[in-house]
Write a structure and sequence with these properties.
Blueprint lengths: L4 H17 L3 H7 L5 E6 L6 H4 L7 E6 L9 H13 L4 E7 L3 H6 L8 H14 L1 H5 L4 H22 L1 H8 L5 E7 L6 E3 L20 H4 L1
Parallel strand pairs: 1-2, 1-3, 3-4
Antiparallel strand pairs: 4-5
């Protein structure tokens, strides 16, 4: 308990500031959450989702993991995605990576790191698909940063390939998937121009023949 004393004090001051600014804030927040956005980001402590986009609690539904990876077999991520899309009815899914990502940098190395090597293999797969471009980048930091971008682009595709998102589009639900990247050196977001708002942009092999009950 002693090691968390400063955090509890910070929490007290924060809640008092918020209550002074809006006395009904916590009462309203406790009744419901109705965010328009799902944020899938990196666990890196330097990329706090709400602060980066200047949104208050309740305005952004968040899932984070090492290197912002979306894997169809990750039940944690898939459960968050399904809840956000089907229950919260978010209109935007944002996959956000960041330059200088430690997970991406680790994936580029040949060092054995333990259990996380199995997770980083997904990023190695992104490298393999883009190997010709990656080998053409001589500077190590530039290579990491480009793979950070390519990883976001790949994860946007992975989001769109899920039955969760495809079912939403089949129902006529307004849902757009975005890929962005954050700069640690300037605090700015960059749009990677991979926005997808329907199944037309999905490779044919990933298209699902959905039941009539979904489309109606």
């Amino acid at each position: 308990m002693g090691t968390l004393k400063s955090l509890f004090e910070n929490n007290r001051r924060w809640s008092e500031r918020v209550s002074q600014r809006d006395p009904d804030f916590f009462a309203k927040l406790s009744r419901q959450q109705a965010p328009d956005f799902l944020w899938i980001g990196c666990s890196d402590s330097r990329v706090p989702a709400n602060e980066v986009v200047d949104l208050m609690p309740g305005e952004l539904f968040v899932h984070r993991n090492v290197a912002n990876v979306v894997v169809h077999s990750d039940m944690n991520c898939m459960s968050v995605l399904q809840f956000a899309v089907e229950q919260l009815q978010v209109e935007h899914i944002i996959v956000c990576g960041h330059y200088g990502c430690g997970g991406v940098r680790a994936a580029l190395s040949d060092r054995e790191l333990g259990l996380i090597d199995n997770w980083l293999r997904h990023i190695k797969d992104v490298y393999r698909v883009n190997e010709r471009e990656m080998r053409g980048i001589a500077d190590a930091d530039e290579r990491v940063n480009r793979l950070c971008e390519l990883n976001v682009i790949a994860q946007v595709r992975n989001v769109c390939h899920t039955t969760i998102v495809q079912n939403a589009w089949a129902r006529g639900q307004n849902l757009t998937v975005h890929g962005v990247i954050y700069g640690l050196s300037d605090g700015r977001l960059k749009d990677l121009d991979v926005t997808v708002d329907g199944p037309a942009a999905i490779d044919d092999i990933y298209h699902m023949q959905l039941p009539e009950t979904v489309r109606n």
